[in-house]
């Protein structure tokens, strides 16, 4: 079965391993991720914090592309693309005035009504594929892995975009358990990673990463799993600066949930892209 | 008889007079057929206004009166009483609402004046056809049913019983006492809750006018005000309470331990148990769900050790019927489900507890003997954080209302903790402090100033466990500083909600509740303890969260309403009820399915099916009349021909 899929820019560059592992895993599960034609940047999430409707053009244009392709559902992998498309879409459904203005501004595009459904891959796996079917395809056992699932903020906030219970999400844990892996409960799984502060407030992100990794470790974890390339970058690459600041800091690998899934389902190692990680996930090699 | 109708137009100060030109109205209506007198006055409901009407009725020999003023829900009774005092049948007096229906909702004076005239004209047409009715008499059973044996039900029961009337008190758990029995000390005086409650519980047991049914539930209620029939289910306790002397040997020997509801799951009780040592009645029940014999078919240890042969495993639930005239619903509250509070761990952390659990830790008769010890490891907490507004005042996620007592009890609990653990550090997180009772503000100030309890204005966003400690993420909104506070125990001032079975009960009683399940009063200001169903009254936290003084006051108010009713020889019922034209009725029964009061009944009269009306049950809502396909159902003084005439009067020029 073909599934229309929106990748976003990071998945074509520094998070290639996210896309590769997802595509290969989905193939094993019987689904083919078909890339949306003529997609553009999702608009990135900080644009949503302002009322300027101009910032909504990018995400809406992508949703119009979905309609053009004769579909009304689109799956995303990156949490931020998911959140941006979802929120822009919600605005289109709720705010008639904004809908009218944006449609009028983009006069060469067909009018859009907000009728595309934006789905995150985790939701797709839960509701369309079914975790029990994922479970049936498990090939390899990843014993020794103690996984700390990390949601960050973009899968859960605001409420209108949340893929699960905001305060007590379980969807990632449920998937990881279906993949026969050990999951660790720890309190920072829905905290913010520091997000774009990584550009001009590196110190802040370093502190958060330090805290996050330490509390995951003290809760018994030896690997962190995420679905957001920015979270992955902050929690993984910034460990370099953390190590420089705290000499006794112990590093911990941070991977995408699709890499765990891929490993368990037995995808070719070339799709794992482990060379892209700062902290090498030895346990997945 | 010739129509001699008088119209009295009220200014209502400027409420009506500033929009409606009263003198024009008086002039126009004075010329209307049937009206022989029209007059205006500034405040018709005042004493001079009423005397004026009284005088004119006699002077002009009026046989119909219209008071054009405010809504009849406000003053119909006032003016009908004026009619009675003047020798006029009160049902020949009507009100024309030219305030809510006219002056309050319009700006244009010309149009409002014209509309007022039309409204009054239509009422003139109605009065012309109004029959002289007499109120219907209803007998009363002077015995009250109280549902719920917490402090609210206890107070209402004692008040009514002490006035000399019989009371039936039904409590679903094995003992009366309710939540108040669980509390340690009470704000703002810090007097011991048990010490003031238990004497009242004993008084209930000893009062000859009170019949106490504990471990019992109301199954069904039929009938109407003054004449209710109640089915009460006496749940099988498997212990013959007449034989049992409460020696406690069975409890001691019972091998099954389960979480104690009374101790808020902080300790265990046996499967055969008395909820707490001061229980009334002090007799055990077997918890069928957890009893080893009922689960496996083997055990019966309690039976073997009971020398008085009081254990009876064959006992079954028994349903009894009682006649009562009035009902007080005092079913109290429960706490909002802690598992819904994800950000504080959703019940996952043992040391994040509810206010009621902390009461048990403070209570001298509690699981720790009054020493404050953490549930997780039994250590005395050196730091305790209290969080208010948990689940309350949160319309987006939980409950929109303020639970009213949390600010005060958290301040009290912080204070009591400080007394028990003088070197301990108590911190209270609040949004704002609501201390609106007598001596309450002084109490909170004492907690802040004298007891040096740290009050932080700000909500806690997250609680988690780290290395045996709890970590709170919060913000001090007065300094704007984000906080990370480490603590040993967290106490949640969690929202109060109605008892879990309130929905079942409102259906049985046919009374209304609001969106949160709290019982609805007949009028939020003027009839706060009556339900909309005559003869059913409400008291305590079943109505809304409230503290002990307010609960006791409201319960006494309910009791006095019951006593007011019982003070009459018989009750009178509004005669403006449905009646049926038996020649027209085809017996189709549509009215029967629609009647919310079960007042329509199918009878066979001379071989013909007739849907008759039980006038005493009818509340005159009009549902059956609107639905009757043949026009056989009619309402007294709101007949079809009256409505047609009224419509004509409104629409004609």
Task: Write the topology of this structure.
The complex is a heterodimer of chains A (285) and B (653).
Chain A: E1 2-6, H1 16-28, E2 32-35, H2 57-68, E3 73-76, H3 79-94, H4 96-105, E4 117-120, H5 121-129, H6 131-136, E5 146-149, H7 171-178, E6 182-183, H8 197-200, H9 202-218, E7 223-226, H10 229-237, H11 239-245, E8 254-256, H12 257-265
Parallel strand pairs in A: 1-2, 1-3, 3-4, 5-6, 5-7, 7-8
Helix pairs in contact in A: 1-12, 2-3
Chain B: E1 5-10, H1 22-30, E2 35-41, H2 47-59, E3 64-69, H3 72-85, E4 93-97, H4 109-129, E5 136-139, E6 143-147, H5 151-162, E7 166-170, E8 185-186, E9 191-192, H6 193-206, E10 210-213, E11 216-224, E12 227-234, H7 249-253, E13 257-259, E14 268-270, E15 272-273, E16 285-286, H8 292-296, H9 301-305, E17 318-324, E18 326-329, E19 333-335, E20 352-354, H10 355-362, E21 383-390, H11 406-420, E22 425-430, H12 440-449, E23 454-457, E24 460-466, E25 469-476, E26 481-487, E27 489-494, E28 496-498, H13 502-509, E29 536-538, H14 548-566, E30 570-573, E31 578-580, H15 590-594, E32 600-605, E33 608-613, H16 623-627, E34 633-635, H17 640-651
Parallel strand pairs in B: 1-2, 1-3, 3-4, 6-7, 6-18, 7-10, 18-29, 20-27, 21-22, 21-27, 22-23
Antiparallel strand pairs in B: 5-30, 8-9, 11-12, 12-17, 13-14, 15-16, 19-28, 24-25, 25-26, 31-34, 32-33
Summarize the structure in short:
The complex is a heterodimer of chains A (285) and B (653). Helix content of chain A is 42%, strand content 11%.
């Amino acid at each position: 079965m073909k599934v229309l899929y929106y990748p976003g820019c990071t998945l074509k560059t520094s998070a290639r391993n996210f896309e590769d592992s997802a595509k290969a895993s989905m193939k094993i599960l019987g689904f083919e991720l078909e890339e949306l034609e003529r997609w553009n940047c999702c608009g990135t999430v900080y644009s949503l914090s302002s009322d300027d409707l101009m910032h909504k053009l990018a995400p809406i244009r992508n949703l119009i592309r979905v309609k053009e392709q004769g579909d009304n559902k689109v799956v995303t992998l990156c949490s931020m693309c998911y959140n941006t498309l979802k929120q822009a879409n919600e605005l289109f459904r709720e705010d008639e005035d904004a809908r009218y203005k944006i449609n009028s501004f983009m006069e060469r595009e067909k009018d859009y009504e907000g009728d595309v459904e934006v789905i995150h891959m985790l939701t797709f796996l839960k509701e369309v594929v079914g975790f029990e079917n994922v479970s049936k395809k498990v090939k390899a056992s990843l014993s020794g892995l103690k996984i700390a699932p990390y949601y960050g903020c973009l899968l859960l906030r605001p409420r209108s975009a949340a893929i699960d219970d905001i305060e007590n999400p379980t969807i990632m844990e449920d998937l990881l358990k279906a993949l026969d892996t050990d999951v660790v409960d720890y309190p920072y799984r829905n905290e913010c990673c520091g997000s774009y502060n990584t550009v001009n407030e590196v110190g802040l992100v370093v502190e958060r990463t330090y805290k996050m990794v330490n509390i995951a470790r003290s809760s018994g974890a030896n690997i962190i799993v995420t679905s957001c390339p920015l979270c992955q970058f902050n929690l993984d690459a910034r460990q370099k600066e953390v190590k420089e600041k705290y000499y006794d800091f112990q590093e911990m690998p941070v991977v995408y949930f699709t890499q765990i899934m891929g490993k368990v389902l037995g995808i070719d190692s070339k799709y794992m892209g482990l060379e892209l990680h700062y902290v090498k996930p030895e346990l997945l090699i | 008889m010739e129509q001699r109708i008088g119209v009295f137009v009220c200014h209502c100060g400027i409420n009506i007079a500033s929009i409606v030109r009263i003198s024009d109205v008086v002039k126009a209506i004075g010329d209307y057929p049937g009206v022989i007198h029209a007059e205006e006055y500034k405040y018709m409901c005042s004493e001079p206004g009423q005397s004026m009407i009284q005088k004119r009725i006699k002077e002009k020999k009026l046989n119909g009166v219209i008071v054009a003023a405010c809504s009849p829900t406000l003053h119909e009774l006032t003016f009908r009483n004026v009619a009675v005092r003047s020798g006029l049948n009160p049902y020949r007096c009507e009100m024309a609402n030219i305030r809510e229906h006219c002056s309050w909702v319009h700006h244009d004076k010309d149009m409002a004046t014209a509309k007022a005239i039309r409204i009054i004209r239509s009422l003139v047409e109605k009065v012309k056809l109004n029959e002289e009715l007499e109120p219907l008499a209803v007998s009363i059973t002077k015995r009250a049913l109280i549902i719920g044996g917490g402090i609210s039900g206890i107070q209402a029961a004692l008040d009514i019983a002490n006035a000399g009337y019989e009371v039936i008190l039904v409590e679903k758990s094995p003992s009366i006492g309710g939540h108040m029995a669980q509390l340690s000390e009470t704000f703002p005086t810090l007097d011991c809750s048990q010490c003031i409650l238990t004497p009242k519980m004993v008084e209930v047991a000893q009062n000859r006018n009170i019949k106490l049914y504990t471990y019992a539930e109301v199954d069904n209620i039929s009938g109407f005000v003054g004449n209710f029939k109640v089915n009460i289910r006496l749940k099988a306790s498997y212990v013959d309470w007449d034989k049992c002397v409460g020696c406690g040997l069975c409890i001691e020997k019972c091998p099954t331990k389960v979480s104690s509801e009374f101790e808020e799951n902080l300790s265990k009780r046996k499967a055969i148990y008395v909820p707490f040592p001061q229980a009334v009645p002090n007799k055990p029940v077997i918890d069928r769900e957890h009893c080893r014999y009922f689960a496996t078919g083997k055990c019966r240890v309690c039976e073997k050790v009971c020398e008085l042969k009081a254990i009876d495993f064959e006992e079954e639930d028994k349903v009894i019927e009682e006649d009562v005239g009035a009902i007080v619903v005092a079913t109290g509250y429960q706490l909002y489900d802690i598992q819904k509070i994800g950000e504080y761990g959703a019940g996952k952390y043992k040391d994040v507890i509810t206010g009621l659990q902390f009461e048990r830790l403070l209570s001298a008769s509690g699981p720790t003997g009054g020493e404050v010890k953490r549930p997780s490891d039994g250590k005395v907490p050196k730091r305790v954080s209290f969080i208010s507004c948990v689940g309350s005042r949160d319309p987006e996620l939980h409950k929109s209302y303020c639970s009213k007592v949390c600010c005060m009890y958290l301040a009290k609990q912080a204070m009591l903790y400080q007394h028990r653990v003088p070197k301990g550090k108590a911190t209270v997180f609040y949004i704002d402090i609501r201390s609106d009772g007598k001596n309450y503000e002084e109490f909170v100030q004492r907690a802040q100033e004298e007891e040096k309890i740290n009050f932080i204005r700000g909500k806690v966003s997250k609680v988690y466990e780290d290395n045996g400690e709890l970590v709170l993420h919060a913000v001090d909104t007065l300094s704007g500083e984000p906080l990370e506070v480490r603590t040993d125990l967290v106490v949640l001032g969690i929202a109060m909600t109605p008892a879990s079975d309130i929905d079942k009960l409102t259906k049985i009683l046919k009374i209304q509740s609001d969106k949160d399940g709290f019982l609805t009063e007949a009028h939020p200001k003027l009839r706060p303890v009556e339900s909309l169903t005559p003869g059913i009254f409400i008291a305590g936290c079943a109505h809304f969260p409230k503290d002990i003084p307010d609960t006791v006051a409201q319960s006494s108010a309910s009791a006095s309403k019951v006593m007011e009713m019982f003070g009459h020889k018989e009750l009178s019922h509004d005669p403006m009820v449905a009646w049926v034209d038996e020649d027209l009725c085809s017996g189709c029964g549509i009215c029967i399915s629609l009647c919310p009061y079960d007042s329509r009944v199918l009878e066979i009269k001379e071989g013909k099916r007739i849907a008759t009306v039980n006038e005493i049950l009818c509340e005159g809502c009009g549902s059956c009349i609107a639905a009757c396909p043949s026009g056989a159902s009619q309402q007294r003084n709101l007949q079809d021909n009256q409505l047609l005439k009224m419509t004509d009067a409104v629409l004609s020029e």
